[in-house]
Every structure is written in structure tokens, then in C-alpha cells.
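Predict structure. Input: RNA polymerase sigma54 factor, 481 residues.
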Amino acid sequence: MALELRQNLKLTQQLVMTPQLQQAIKLLQLSRVELLDVIQEELLENPMLDEQGQGENKSEQESNQEAETKGQDDKKELATEEKDFLKNAEWEDYLGDFSSTTRQVQGYESESLEEISSYEGRVSAKPSLEGHLLWQLHLSDIDEEDCRIGEMIIGSLTSSGYLAASVEDLAQQLGVSEETVERVLGVVQHFDPVGIAARTAKECLLIQLDAVDDHDPILRSLIEDHLEDIEQRRYKPLLRKFKLAKDDLKEYLDVITALDPLPGASYGSSTSVYVSPDAYVYKYDDDYIIVLNDDGLPKLQLNPFYMETMQGRTSKEDSSYLHEKMRAAQWLMKSLQQRQRTLFKVVESIVKFQHDFFDYGPTRLKPLILKDVAADIDMHESTVSRITTNKYLATPHGIFELKYFFNSALDLDDGTQVGSESVKVAIKKIIEGEDPKKPYSDEKISKMLKDILEVNIARRTVAKYRSALNIESSSRRKKFF
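Output follows.
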């Protein structure tokens, strides 16, 4: 078969994601903090971008400079006597109590600079578990060899404060005997927090008992041999074995529950995250008003100086560069406006669909999916998904993520539907109002939901929602005393 070359014409359609379109899509899914970072970065990189009001500030600075220059010229014309008076006049005595600097502050100014700490010296990061333990280790009266072993032990701890490596492995790595590692381990275990570097929960609790000199044999036996019974709330065998009354056993259990089985958890690296809502919803008469949160977002404009430069005589390279940056700046401003417009439309649609929520609270949250909002505002479902990511809405009932308003549906007896989040709220209220000694089972809660919400919900669904709310089962919630 002979080989030959042929030319064929073929018409195809292909979606091309331009850099501008990719930027617009990226801006949709950015959180408020991330959006501020992107805008500040563009302000630094693009000379055609400027904040509104900066031009006015520049003119004010120029006028201030002119005023200062004029003032300096006037001062040059002052007589020698007036100059001496300006230098030597005791203005604080002249102004008296009307001075801008109080006498108390004047006393502070006489302090030495060493006594005044800087801002960095007054603000510090949250101490870590490893740093807290190493600080105590280096202050301990031990030799360099034991200090080296202690550093290895501290470096082998988990985030909860338990020893992850075995004594045998540590001894082998350090080239010392196991007895030496055990001895240093005992020292570390009595650092603050007490019970750190334990290998098991029993050892951790017993170390804390030793620290308070509590050697009650019953209490130690409960920890050594019956922690599982206490966890499963099997109290009757314990009453028979130790021949205790209920009140006596309750005292022992109070002591055990006061101990900390996770001594290192309080030194976790997690910090509180403060949320700034992207929009506010206010009730006005019988209607709701939506206000987008523009605080802190710079208002962008084209730099007037470079716009005038483009109109003058510039080289071909400079003109091409400025035009490119101008198009990028215009596209960014257009994308930001489109982002805010899309966010407003989505919030407006959510308020329309979830009107009962804004009137009565989470118990009246209706089922809603992204497709419903997308069809309502005539946008694609992916656009709604992006604009609701990492966005928060301040409502009369608190601050909620926009994703919170989208939830699955459960069928009611009358043919209508109720949102799954409303069912979760109902389950939480039922459990909060139960008798601690006789908690409701999942089967009982499902029957109560049928009476309250008229919803047919299976027991396993109640268990799934209860687990999502971090609520324990009825056997673990039950209190015998």
C-alpha cells in the first residue's frame, strides 16, 4: 500500500479558557481574605491600577508640601530674637493643663528605653507543646546526656501528648540502656502538664494520681482494671465487687473524670478563625434588605497619571506595555463587579427560597439544591457552586455559610418536604430536653419526629444525623447518678 499525503478540512468547536476567563472564575470562589490578597497583589504589580481617592491624597500632599515650603520661607524672615524665643520657650508650662501631652505621660518619657518593650516583645505566638516541654527540660537539674535523651523523648510525642516510640527503639537510637531511658522518661512525665509522655491512658491517669499523692487502692484498681467498664457505664458489677454505695462510687468517678487523659491536647496548633461575612441580611418591616460587605475592599480606578501619559508622546514599547496593563486592569475591575453582582443575585435567591428561615430560624429551613438557585437567577450551576464557596451570610439568627442553606429533602405525610438541617435542629432539641437518666433511643426519636414534624424517618437516619451533630448514643448519654 502506497503512502500519500492528503489535506482535509474539518470544522470543530472547542472551548478555550483564556487567562481573563480563568481569572474571573478564580475570583468567584475566593474567600473575602483571599480576594483582598489578590487585589493588593494586583495593585503592586499593575501601574495602571489605582485606588479611588489616592489622586486626591496626592494633591493634598502637594499642597501640604507647598504650605511647608512657604512656612519655611516665612521662618527665615523671623528676627533672631523670635528664633531664640521659639527654641527656648517652655511651651508645656505656658499651655498648662491644656497641653496635648499630660504630665503623667511626660513622666513616662523619662523612663529608660530598656524598660519600654517593643510591640513584638508584647505579642507572642501560642506556645507549642514541644517548646513548653523543652523549656522545662533545659531548666531541670540534669546532665547533658539525660538532656539529650529528654529531647529525643519530647520529639517522639504525638499531638495528644503520648509517647509514639517504644523505650527499646529510643535506647537503640541513642545508644544507651533502657533503664536510663525509663529514668529520664519518668522525669519528663512529671513535667507540666502532668501525665505527658505516657504510653497508655492508664499510665497517664496513674501518673496524675501519683502527682497528688492519692494512693487509694480502690481508685487505682478502677483505673488499672476497670476503665473499659467505666467507659461502657457498667456500674453494677463495680458496686458488687468493691461493695460500695452509689454515692461512694460517684465520688470515685468524679475524681477520675477530673483527670486529663489527653494532657497535650490543650497545646494544639489550631487557632480560632474569625469570619467576616460577605453580605448582611436585615429585616425592614415585612421585607429583607441585602447589603454586601464592601468594608476593606479597595475601590479601583485607572491611574490618571498613566492615562495622561498614554495620550502624550510615548515610545512604541511603552505604549504597548501601558495598553496591555490597562486592559488587564479593566478586566479585573469588570470581574470584581461581576463577582459582587453574582453574589448579590445568589443571596437574593436564597432569601426568596428560605424566607421562612429568616422569619423563624433554622427549624424552618426548606430543602434547596444548587440547581434551583441556578435556574432562578439564570446562571450555570457551577457558577452558583463557586460563588457559595467560603462565603458567609450574616442573618438575624447568626452567621451561616452559604452552603448551609442548601440541604437535602425529607418527605412529609402531607406530600410536602422538609430540609435535613431542620430535622437535625429538631433532633438536637429533643435530646436537650430528655431526662439524663432515661435518654431517648434513636427509635424513640424517630417516632417523636413523626409526631412533631410529621416526617417518616428511619432509625438509622436518626443515628446518622445524631452522629453528624457529635451527639453520643443513648447508652453513653445515660447518667446513673
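The longest strand covers residues 279-284.
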